Amino acid sequence: MIWTYFILFALTAVVLWAAGAFTAWKERRQVAIIFTVAGLMVFFAYIVMMWITLERPPLRTMGETRLWYSLFLPFAGVIVYGRWRYKWILAFSTTLSTVFVCFNIFKPETHSKTLMPALQSPWFAPHVIVYMMAYAILGAALVMAMYLLLFRKTDPTPKECQITDDLVYVGLAFLTLGMLMGALWAKEAWGHYWSWDPKETWAAITWLFYLVYIHYRRYRPTAYRPALWALLIGFCLLQMCWWGINYLPSVKGVSVHTYNL
């Protein structure tokens, strides 16, 4: 099974990402970008191989979605690094991605080619991929917030807070696009756009939270620290929406978004 080769691809990618983070600290910008992109290509090659082997998008199980999240975190990190040249961002994004890679290494799953009818929709793959991209970009906003709150000895500057705002703008745009795709998928699969399923409810809570954040920043532009702490709360809501709801009693036997069967 292709999953048995995951550790080889994953470790190679993590080593390349770590090399990119190290060279970024050494102010070797082009080399850092090359290493990071090379790691992304290795990791993406594994996802493509898995897609071909399974004959379906590797997006059904929690482990499969973690693959995409582990890919998109360094991708978001290298974009931030290339745009704003914060040398620490690659170290943070690599660390966070490695955590999710380790989850997949130490908690392997059984993957079948079977897709239930609800997942045999053309909206399935773009919906989940767009959501994983949104989670990664908002994860980059979290990384920026943690750095400014916990590692900076001085107050954050307006420019630095503007970076977190820009990341939230893009992340919320992807969340919105993902919700729209999900609504179209739901209409096709179940006959209605929205049903207040537990997953949908938490998705709405998360979307509204980041929308409130944007409005708060517009009306309180100098209240930096409360806004940065809010991003930590927002990230917790993302995790609840992504996998935390699976442990809620109200989801078992009720949610139509439970596919790990």
Order of helices and strands: HHHHHHHH
The structure class reads mainly alpha
How much helix is in the residues? Answer: over 70%
Count of discrete alpha- or pi-helical segments spanning 4 or more residues: 8
Keywords: Cytochrome c-type biogenesis, Membrane, Transmembrane, Transmembrane helix
Domain Cytochrome c assembly protein: 87-248
GO biological process, one term: cytochrome complex assembly
Protein name: Cytochrome c assembly protein domain-containing protein
List the helices and strands and how they pair.
Elements (H helix, E strand, L loop, with lengths): L5 H20 L3 H26 L7 H23 L4 H18 L17 H28 L6 H33 L7 H22 L4 H19 L19
Helix pairs in contact: 1-2, 1-4, 2-3, 3-4, 3-5, 5-6, 5-8, 6-7, 7-8
Protein name: Cytochrome c assembly protein domain-containing protein
GO molecular function, one term: heme binding
Keywords: Cytochrome c-type biogenesis, Membrane, Transmembrane, Transmembrane helix
Could you characterize the architecture of this molecule?
With 261 residues, this protein is mainly alpha-helical. The protein folds into two domains: 1-109; 121-250. It has eight helices and no strands. It has helices at residues 6-25, 29-54, 62-84, 89-106, 124-151, 158-190, 198-219, 224-242. Helix 1 (6-25) runs antiparallel to helix 2 (29-54). The longest helix has 33 residues, at 158-190. The protein starts with 5 loop residues before the first helix and ends in a 19-residue tail after the last helix. The model has no long low-confidence stretch (mean pLDDT 89).
